[in-house]
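Section 5: illustrative case.
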């Protein structure tokens, strides 16, 4: 894509449809920065003068422009790759942890569902209501694990999932505050809130890294502030 942009500056055919190139530049922070820096360098070269005599820029600007912006572009690309890789690894680890947590919850329901077909409790330790809650909790954790796995595979999906997780965290946090005031909070409840917050952060990180945004650009994007 950078070669196509350089060819455009030289007035040469790039082999790509101009609308496709423009659409890619509009959605890619790295290529957009490359194009802006290339334009700036091209303008400087067009006004180069030596000893008071105007000097025309070389006909082929590709090598000069790429040499001027390629080091910075490579640095940004490397930083983006590192950030995206770390976010993907964290998302995968969280997904595995959530699957393990869901399995534990399901296994814990074994002694809580000892009831007959007509609903009669067969054991004094049976708690069907608690078992149902744990099954629902396991289902939520499995859903989050699948979402994290998909986001790690395709980071662009993280943007749609992050608001859902953040809303779930905010809703549960409200009840946790109430329980703290009443002195009824538990370690499992706090662990659940911490896990949800971490999932939301990793999803936002994945979404930003997938778009090539640095922390400052990501914050401006989330806060709807102009660049």
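Designed sequence:
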């Amino acid at each position: 894509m950078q070669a196509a942009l350089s060819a455009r500056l030289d007035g040469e055919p790039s082999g790509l449809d101009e609308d496709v190139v423009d659409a890619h530049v509009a959605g890619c922070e790295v290529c957009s920065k490359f194009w802006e820096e290339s334009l700036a360098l091209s303008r400087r070269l067009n006004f180069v003068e030596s000893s008071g005599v105007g000097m025309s820029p070389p006909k082929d600007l590709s090598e000069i422009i790429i040499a001027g912006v390629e080091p910075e572009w490579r640095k940004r690309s490397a930083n983006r790759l590192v950030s995206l890789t770390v976010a993907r690894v964290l998302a995968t680890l969280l997904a595995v942890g959530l699957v393990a947590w869901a399995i534990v919850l399901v296994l814990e329901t074994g002694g809580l569902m000892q009831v007959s077909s007509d609903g009669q409790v067969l054991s004094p330790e049976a708690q069907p209501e608690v078992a149902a809650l744990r099954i629902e909790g396991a289902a939520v954790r499995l859903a989050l694990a699948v979402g994290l796995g998909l986001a790690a595979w395709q980071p662009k999906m993280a943007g749609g999932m992050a608001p859902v997780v953040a809303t779930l965290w905010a809703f549960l946090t409200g009840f946790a505050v109430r329980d703290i005031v009443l002195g009824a909070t538990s370690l499992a409840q706090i662990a659940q809130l911490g896990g949800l917050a971490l999932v939301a952060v990793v999803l936002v990180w994945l979404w930003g890294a997938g778009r090539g945004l640095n922390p400052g650009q990501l914050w401006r994007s989330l806060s709807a502030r102009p660049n």
